[in-house]
Amino acid sequence: MMHDPALTPIESPMLQEAGGSAIRHGYFTRRGGVSAGLYASLNVGLGSNDVREHVLENRRRVAAWFGQPLERLATVNQVHSPDVVTVDESYAGERPSADALVTKTPGIVLGVLAADCGPILFADPKNRVVGAAHAGWKGALYGVAENTIEAMLALGAERAGIVACLGPSIAGKSYEVGPEFVARFLSENPDYARFFTPSAKAGHAMFDLPALTTDRLIKAGIRAENLALDTYPDQERFFSYRRTTHLAEADYGRQISAIAITEE
User: Fold this and answer.
1) Mean pLDDT, the chain, as a whole number?
2) Residue 101 contacts by C-beta under 8 Å, 6 or more apart in sequence?
3) Total-model pTM
4) Domain range spanning residue 60?
């Protein structure tokens, strides 16, 4: 299969080992696209103010890395929900409001966008079912990962056969939150106090979202991996909403994480 040499996606050792030749995946960085300025260069965010033609070309390049046309790259209108959509051979480019996708159809590339939130890619290689989820704090707290697993089971996956990997996302050392944020989590589960550590700012805390996310994946009964790549400080490779906010920039790009079942 020919890949665009300009694209440099990061791959999960766990997904690689489990998936073999049956599953293909990549956590794409901001490198290898055509966008300029704040969006340089592989911005795939249709919701950004980037030139639309550039965003579509970037998406085409991602699909081509999987050996597929743009029309086979399935994404959703992400709204920080726990909602999952099932994609099949009838997929025609629609982008429903949801934050995760699952499929058992070979050749459809499932993609989720992120710029600090956690992209999770799932695979059950034996039963040839894959999933992708966008897990920000709200999605992680209210069950987007668990719902993705349930949607995969409905397609014939087996819980013991599912592996998942959390890709580049904001790390605890970069994510300061206020007291009302902490209170929301503790009201859901007092045990979540272990994901917060006091920050230098009175009443505030540093929040380890990746630790919470991987903890919930493991508690859901699957094998999970965290690539432990922090989007906030790594401006060369990753877009970051929080970094953009701190720098008072006008807008930000989004990177994509994607997975597909290979066509036999």
Assistant:
1) 96
2) 74, 75, 76, 84, 85, 86, 87, 110, 112, 131, 132, 133
3) 0.97
4) 13-171+208-261
